[in-house]
Design a protein that fits this description.
Blueprint lengths: L19 H66 L3 H27 L5 H26 L1
Helix pairs in contact: 1-2, 1-3
Length: 147
């Protein structure tokens, strides 16, 4: 029996080199890994931002109610004070207004703290890192081709 040998001009398929389908599958997995994680991160931050907006709006309404209730209370106390003590308008305002201002300032500080959740800072860091990696890879390729 004689063995059949391949023609000399055809090269044998290198078993170590992956096929086009294998490369495409690998590329799809890499894209899914990069953008899937990024999309998940963006979705989580969007949810946090949405909850923060709801909290900010709710606290804004609460602040408005607090200011309105305090104003009404101020008027009632002022009327009672003027009737019972004979004191002037200025003293009544000076005693009650600072409490109202402190409560409002506390809520505003809390709202400002929540507003930091609207910045998508982790998503921006990830996108920035990806952009830096791409620029770095491009610069390396340019340096390699110049050499």
């Amino acid at each position: 029996m004689s063995s059949v040998e391949p023609p000399a001009d055809s090269s044998p398929v290198d078993a170590a080199e992956p096929s086009l389908l294998h490369r495409a599958t690998g590329l799809l997995h890499a894209i899914r890994a990069v953008f899937g994680g990024l999309c998940t991160l963006a979705a989580m931050e969007a949810r946090l931002a949405g909850l923060s907006v709801i909290a900010i709006l709710g606290l804004g309404v609460a602040t408005g109610i607090l200011f309105a209730a305090t104003w009404l209370l101020l008027m009632a106390v002022l009327a009672m004070w003027l009737v019972q003590m004979g004191l002037g308008w200025g003293l009544a305002l000076l005693c009650i207004v600072p409490i109202n201002l402190l409560a409002g300032a506390g809520l505003i500080m809390f709202i400002c703290g929540l507003s930091r959740n609207l910045l998508f800072s982790a998503t921006r860091r990830q996108v920035s890192a990806l952009a830096r990696e791409k620029i770095y890879a491009k610069n390396k390729a340019t340096e390699a081709s110049d050499s």
